[in-house]
Hints:
Elements: H1 2-8, H2 14-25, H3 40-43, E1 50-57, E2 62-68, H4 69-76, H5 80-84, E3 95-98, E4 103-107, E5 110-114, E6 118-122, H6 127-158, H7 177-213, H8 217-249, H9 251-256, H10 259-282, H11 298-397, H12 411-436
Antiparallel strand pairs: 1-2, 1-6, 3-4, 4-5, 5-6
Helix pairs in contact: 6-7, 7-8, 7-11, 8-11, 11-12
InterPro entries: CorA_TM1_TM2, MRS2-like
Subcellular location: Membrane
Organism: Cardamine amara subsp. amara
Amino acid sequence: xxxxxxxxLPPRPASAMNLRDAAxxxxxxxxxxxxxxxxxxxxxxxxxxxxxxxxxxxxxxxQVMEVDKFxxxxxxxxxxxxxxxxDPLFVYPSTILGREKAIVVNLEQIRCIITADExxxxxxxxxxxxxxxxxxxxxxxxxxxxxIWQQENAQLSRRRKSFDNGFENSSPDYLPFxxxxxxxxxxxxxxxxxSQASELEIEAYPLLDELTSKISxxxxxxVRRLKSRLVALTRRVQKVRDEIEQLMDDDGDMAEMYLxxxxxxxxxxxxxxxxxxxxxxxxxxxxxxxVSPVSSPPDSRRLDKSLSIARSRHDSARSxxxxxxxxxxxxxLLEAYFVVIDSTLNKLTSLKEYIDDTEDFINIQLxxxxxxxxxxxxxxxxxxxxxxxxxxxxxxxxMNFEIDFFNQPGxxxxxxxxxxxxxxxxxxxxxxxxxxxxxMPL
Length: 442
């Protein structure tokens, strides 16, 4: 990995490295990890407009290019808004766009342009980007052996097939270059999101168990941060899942992503036009000069028209059959990673439900404590009322007047006994009333 990093990325000036480190240290407001290792200083130089790209061809060879925005637009036949999705200075949701000559992929850290002959990635120091390049090289070099075996089988199959079937794949398990690159990008994105979900899951369960045993401000703050990270990660996983599901539901978008098939058809149509022009030139017809309708015989014109109509119908029927078959292959590929990303989403959903259950349990505990405090306050208020009765009796007998009851030797004792019994009866009556109304546990 380090050798590939040194070979792909030449050393940069110290000022650029300091600016890059400062940009990376700033957290993203969406919770998404920023693209590491991007030369922000070079990106902000709008005067030059050159950006470093890593090019990987069909043989697995890599090359570093310095290309400006408009050259890349002409090279891949893409509008400016599609290239803006790959800009590391902006945070865009995950997107997979199928265009006429390229596929624009923006999946987490993987931002690339896939064509029928090459993959173009922004030159970055991010480990996930370098792993993507290494994995793509390994698979392309491994598949070269399979391609040789397929070419040998194709030579035998051409003897049994007509010229029209020569543009179809001889093996149903074969995937074109753009789908292999897209598969690695989907695998990298799904693996990255699943690893983050696993790390969050490992961190969450012990923290939630600790919170249930000890409710404190520190634990509540840690759970709040954990929940915010969970919401951000769930949003990103949901966006990738929705993007794959949208592609699976739209056959037109999947058909647009068959770049190798469209390239072969275009080359076949050009070859057919050239052969037709050569046939007419051999017959002595001028291609450049217009043919007069009076001089040309009507039978030849009818024959050319009927042949062109039959050829167009045959080509359209054959292309529709090929697109339908190929869409099934791409749909199976997308469905496999849809299951993976859906499993990650279910894992996050289960974690969110566990957090919600923990919050409900904590709220129940707090409500129970609050109810106990209210019951204690009610008993304390009742006891205060009973004690106040003694104060009323003491205030009455403390007035400055003379009665015969004060001269009796046991008067004070009887006053205390009668007042205490009355207070106890009143307190017991209040407690019975509270239990009768279910204001206190029995």
